[in-house]
Amino acid sequence: MRVGVLGPEGTFSQMAAEQYARRRHLNFQFFYFPDLARVMKALVQDQVELAIVPVENSQEGSLSTTLDFLLWQDGVQIQDEEVLAVRHWLWGKPGTRLDQISAVLSHHQALAQCQGWLNRRLPQAIKVLTTSTSEACAKVAKSEESLAAIAAPVAGAAYGLEALAEDLQDNKNNATRFLVLGKGSQSLRPQPGEKWKTSIAFGTPHEPGALYRALEPLARQGLNLCKIESRPAKRKLGEYIFLVDIEGCSLEPGPVSQGLIELMGRAAWVKMLGCYPAAPGGGEDE
Ligand SMILES: O=C(O)C(=O)Cc1ccccc1
Q1: Does ligand 1 come within 6 angstroms of the Cβ of 66?
Q2: Spatial separation of the C-alpha atoms in residues 235 and 21, rounded to whole Å
């Protein structure tokens, strides 16, 4: 199966996709793209059958590029999700000492997830954004200066770099949730004992109680929400769209489909983003 991920080789996105392939017993051929927008565009243009993209980090919150794509692009559905425990290592050219490092390169999520460590241990180093963690490794490997990259424990060695420090992440439970996006409809169905999620987006009229009224049917059906987020409606300042993840599956008659029918009668508009099995490690009660 052709799968698009953020490149070059060695990103956390690829690690998440490999972990997902093992869990689902799938065989992936990877296609690498230089940014998330292009990974998702490749799906729309049928260059790949699945796109696996980060959507949310336990510390840094949501990735707006991914959310906005889901909101504004038609014909793409969330098929599944994967949660990856994210450990960051510091990589440099062999022999680099920490006190020599003038700049640390990485994806903005990685720099943010390690800011406490960086401020304590490398106060002299400036932070430089790259399009991905493995792109940071490639740049450090090519540079003449004493630079360092933050990347996965498997990433740096492939670029000829040496691990200078391990586990830089400020939060020991650092984890990122990735979405498996596809164009087809959901082919899986809930198995007994399996937890599912239904993701939707909706708009409400700009009036008192509108969000409460839209969500009230879900509460009455006894449904638990596992995420609620707002994004700008992109028309004018102060207008928002809501994205909600509901525990349960809307593909079969039951409280989720009943709650959604009522929500559709109360919201200004509703978009179904996908219905899919909840990944292990996603913060559910164990
Ligand atoms: O740059 C990467 O490796 C990515 O896949 C994006 C990312 C960065 C940091 C944590 C999770 C995902």
Answers
A1: no
A2: 39
**Token pair belonging to 26:** 């799938």
Is 53 close to ligand 1, i.e. is its CB under 6 Å away?
Answer: no
10 lines ligand 1 (CB under 6 A): no
Which tokens belong to 254? 């039951």
Q: Output the CA 152–ligand 1 centroid distance in Å.
A: 9
Helix (H) or strand (E) segment spanning residue 247: strand 240-247
Q: What is the pLDDT of residues 231-265, one digit of tens each?
A: 998 888 888 999 999 999 999 899 999 999 999 99
pLDDT in the model for residue 284:
56
* 8-state DSSP, 208: T
Domains of the chain: 2-86+174-182 (3.40.190.10), 89-165 (3.40.190.10), 196-276 (3.30.70.260)
Measured distance CA(7)–CA(133) in Å, rounded: 9
ipTM score: 0.96
Q: Tell me, what's the pLDDT at 286?
A: 46
| Average model confidence (pLDDT) across the chain | 95
